[in-house]
Known about the structure:
Blueprint: E1 2-5, E2 14-16, E3 22-24, E4 28-31, E5 41-42, E6 49-54, E7 62-65, E8 73-77, E9 86-90, E10 96-105, E11 111-124, E12 132-138, E13 148-151, E14 157-158, E15 176-188, E16 193-200, E17 209-219, E18 226-234, E19 237-244
Parallel strand pairs: 3-10, 7-8
Antiparallel strand pairs: 1-13, 2-6, 4-17, 5-7, 6-10, 8-9, 9-17, 10-16, 11-15, 11-17, 12-13, 12-14, 12-16, 18-19
Amino acid sequence: xxxxxxxxxxxxxxxxxxxxxxxxxxxxxxxxxxxxxxxxxxxxxxxxxxxxxxxxxxxxxxxxxxxxxxxxxxxxxxxxxxxxxxxxxxxxxxxxxxxxxxxxxxxxxxxxxxxxxxxxxxxxxxxxxxxxxxxxxxxxxxxxxxxxxxxxxxxxxxxxxxxxxxxxxxxxxxxxxxxxxxxxxxxxxxxxxxxxxxxxxxxxxxxxxxxxxxxxxxxxxxxxxxxxxxxxxxxxxxxxxxxxxxx
Length: 247
């Protein structure tokens, strides 16, 4: 993993879609994005999710797209008229997007590992070079564009289709991929906020339209590594003692 600080596109005109926090109390949090608009333009997102746009065409709204639109924007991707949606973007010289979510640790204890999975979907092919939605998380951000972020390449989504038609069905197996990874080494105290995001750079030439769908977040329970283990017989009972290297 790589850690970096970001002051994203401060020279650009930018818009932020504001949000409330998602209370993560353990178990499994899931989001299928099917509440996104299926026609026209909108700004409403699932609770806790947000996006930031930068560039001359930034307006704080996302647009519905089934893959035919090649303009830079934040998109609700899906088949025409379908309620099966995915949240994504397509970068251009006039607009780049960052999408993500803001959580608060409501488990009552610290989080040391996060299990994240989602389906990456490609809804448009650009010039043929594979593009990437790059994943990162932050434990000190106050927005998608502030704080220190740690990139996790295992949770990136890279476009699987680099030839053929430009308009694609992102739900098709050939144009999608399951992405998942357990992030270890985090330290999120009880009551603290943490952020996740995907960034889409403006690549040379026409870009791909990429999206995320069927997102899940779980509190990962890591296996315990024992440093020592002993058993002492005391009368009719056995007293066990151990020391762990990981807990």
